[in-house]
Amino acid sequence: MQPTMSAAFKAQTSKQAPVVKADLTGKTVCVLGANTGIGFQSTKHFAAMNPTKIILACRSETRGREAVQRLRDETGYTKGELQILDLADFASTKQFADRLEQEGGRLDILIANAASEPRKFITTKDGWESTLHINHLGTSLTVLRLLPTLLRTAKDNGTLSRIVVVSSDLHYNVTIAPEVRTRPGSILQTLSSAEFLQPLRRIQEQYAVTKLLNVFFARALNAHLGPSAPIIVDAVNPGYCVSELRRNVSGFTNIMLKLLDATVALTAEEGSRRLVWAALGMPSKEDALRG
């Protein structure tokens, strides 16, 4: 159910619940987009729970290495491992998943966090609009390619793996134009089309559209896996947080967002607590989180 404005304001301005904690001894956590923002802050929280390994999946090797060192410096955790993953490149996604599969190790928790909001039309090397590619196509492909490892981990160890897809309550604001379903080609091809996205407002709304697709993906994957699968798939709203995500916003919109940052925005650390909750919360009632 869509939250009211008053409920959304209360959620942003109320004192945030403390981070959920668990013993992650022996387990492996993977965080996409782990070098900054809520992604990095969530790795810090996981590091305090003694996992065997945290995989920091980052596009930039330089920024990724800096994040691994920063994690070590700020937490004392020495088992952070950088893996290169460019969600705007299908080949990179496949190579990333292949590496983890070939290593044959565990993967207990996957935080599908990375996102982009360029607010202008850019195509990736694979020919897709970049926001759609990174936030939905690349993220979904990564989850699907890692699914066998997550399932094997759960079955071999008698545990429940978790996939957390980071979405946003902005998905409530999306109205998909009727022509998306009637134009030739697939819905995704239409949503990636320069012609369809030509009105400025549509490319500016593309981030929210991808967040809706994230929710659809989480629900569909959960439905396909079924209620007996040893894996929990959920989608989480981290809230409106101070973030590098909006670095490409300019003009009046940027002024308004800076005002929100100064008044109601959560810190990245506060937002990351919600990701950790989706990954670890309700340990005796996990089934309530499916989908």
Automatic annotation (TrEMBL):
One Pfam match: adh_short
- What does the UniProt keyword field contain? Oxidoreductase
Q: Domain of life, per the record?
A: Eukaryota
Q: Which GO terms describe its molecular function?
A: oxidoreductase activity
SUPFAM superfamilies named among the record's database cross-references:
NAD(P)-binding Rossmann-fold domains (SSF51735)
Q: Which InterPro entries match?
A: NAD(P)-bd_dom_sf (IPR036291), SDR_fam (IPR002347)
Q: What is this protein called?
A: Short chain dehydrogenase sol3
Organism listed in the record: Mycena venus
Read off the lineage from the record. Eukaryota, Fungi, Dikarya, Basidiomycota, Agaricomycotina
